Amino acid sequence: MATNEELKKIVKEKYTVIAEQAAETNASSCCGATSACCGDGMTYSIMADDYTGRDGYVADADLALGCGIPTDYAGIRPGMTVLDLGSGAGNDVFIAAREVGADGFVIGVDMTDTMITKANENKTKLDVANVDFRLGEIEALPVEDSSVDVIISNCVLNLVPDKAAAFAEMYRVLKSGGSFTVSDIVVEGDLPDELRDVAELYAGCVSGAVKKDVYLAFIREAGFSSIEIPSQKAIHIPQSVIDSTLAGLPEQKRNFNNARLVSVTVRAVKQRR
User: Fold this and answer.
1) Which of 50, 65, 73, 257 has the highest CB neighbour number within 10 Å of its CB?
2) Each residue of 71-94: b (16+ CB within 10 Å) or e?
3) What SS3 state is found at 205?
4) Is the predicted pLDDT of residue 135 greater than 90, yes or no?
5) Residue 111's closest CA among 145, 75, 86?
6) Phi and psi for 198 in degrees, rounded to 5?
7) pLDDT digits (tens, 9 = 90+) for 78-91
């Protein structure tokens, strides 16, 4: 079993590659980047949510990595301070920046240097003043206590090894009465433990996912309330992809035990004090 630091290294290396390739390449693969988990010649995307036409959308910032559109449900208003976790090239940040207006501010945090560089290049090209991209990890956010109105995140928290620490950090930086809205991948049913050790799948949003009830428990234990799921959809993975992944396991484990992967958008509130 890989350690947390080893898993972070895997994800960082994976997303460095993703940052340097075209969105079309990311969108055409089940892992967000061309890799063995899809098998030779296979193309399948779980990252297919279309941002086109949304106010503030920037094609150069869209790496086709999202599993939802959290800004649709986040209740972002003018003048707010918004934090995007795992901000990548800035796709959700620039949409949020348009929503908060000149009197608001948006912070994007990502642990991959290449993503921060790409995001800042987009910021410069767009001449956006109310945005700041910061290098850092979600379990130790470079953000002050009680300074953020809304947190958003798109298909990133499932890649964080210590999810309890991540939600605790989110609670810390939110203002009283603030909220988060995140889109993520969770599991319904039983996923074989062996799949969680497959590095290619881990960076592809599958083996890093936890059961939905466990995911929601992390949120409650961090202190959040008013938890809701405004949107969810099942992720249908072709049987050929499943078979190629499970081929190396003992016969009795070569199935998903009726489990399924689900893309969920979850919203919760830090109660006012």
Assistant:
1) 65
2) bbbbebeeebbbbbbbbbbbbbbb
3) coil
4) yes
5) 86
6) -85, 110
7) 999 999 999 988 88
Residue 35 pLDDT > 50, yes or no? Answer: no
As a whole number of angstroms, the distance between CA 125 and CA 123 comes to 6
Mean pLDDT of the chain, nearest integer? 79
Which of 98, 100, 15 shows the shortest CA–CA distance to 64?
15
Q: Select from 210, 219, 202 the least CA-distant residue to 259.
A: 210
- pTM, two decimals, is 0.79
The CATH architecture of the domain made up of 4-269 is: 3-Layer(aba) Sandwich (3.40)
Residue ranges per domain, the chain?
4-269
* Interval 56-75: pLDDT, tens: 666 655 655 667 889 999 99
216, containing H or E segment: helix 212-221
For residue 101, is pLDDT > 70?
A: yes
Q: Of 204, 157, 158, 260, which is closest to residue 29 (Cα–Cα)?
A: 204
